[in-house]
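Let us practice reading a record.
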Amino acid sequence: MGQVLHGSARTTQALRRAIQHSQASIRALARRYGINAKTVAKWKRRTTTADAPMGPKTPRSTVLSREEEALVVAFRKHTLLPLDDCLYALQATIPHLTRSALHRCLKRHGISRLPEIEGEKPAKKTFKTYPIGFFHIDIAELRTEEGKLYLFIAIDRTSKVAFARLLAKANTATAVAFLDELIEAIPYKINVVLTDNGIQFADLPKNRSGPTATWRRHPFDRACQRHGIEHRLTKPNHPWTNGQVERMNRTLKEATVQRYYYDNHEQLRAHLADFLAPTTLPGASRPCAASHRTNMSAKSGQKTRVASGAIQSITPRDCTPSGGLGRRW
């Protein structure tokens, strides 16, 4: 993390530390570092390298007197009224009181927030625990110089095991094929699959209750039934219901197409395979996306062109938590 220095600072923390540890004279240090001798003497006297806090030692209001400030604090503690109500009630007594001055006064005394009343907010509920085998599935669109690809991604709600495939089309046939690959790749029983209401996974809501849809059923539903899997759908226009896989989509995009430039689909496939490379040894090194600091300019925001050796193996500390099959999150 960078140092935050004031605009007129001529020294850094490293330079201040060197001055404090040096046995040279003040005049010699001033000539060596090109700074004033008074600055050298100041840092010689101090025991820390941090800037001293500026401003008044005891914060006070420039608008309110001490008596008026005490009145404001007593009124707030006694009535527990909101900020605007306090302002309306106190302006008759303190005509020059402004909303910003009132807020700063309450902030200084630690009463800017009203205490929470029991029963005012609904109690926070804990997430329901699910056995292993509950998978979230979603589709995202990725692009390379060669064109467009569709990323099918599945993640286990409990174990966080992730499985992904890049396909040229996003239709019912590819969705069923992805489910078959997922079942073959996962070594344990998949019990539930949660998807959105896309046409790859379900009929349109207006057609689901019709006789044709009831009789033939959607191909993805038939595939789930064939494998003994319960297929659930999210509530329409509620993408946060499938939030785990939505976040996984964002993670994969940030690690690939938003950071690197790909000349063709094979480069993206190879990079994605490395990023999601499975491992059975917790704590072992795993392939991961190359470091953001070394592969992307923070100032320009330009993508880095993928070349041979761009994807490197780094320690699990540089990635997210390790262990299990596939990529863990």
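A brief commentary: Residues 66-79 form the longest helix (14 residues).
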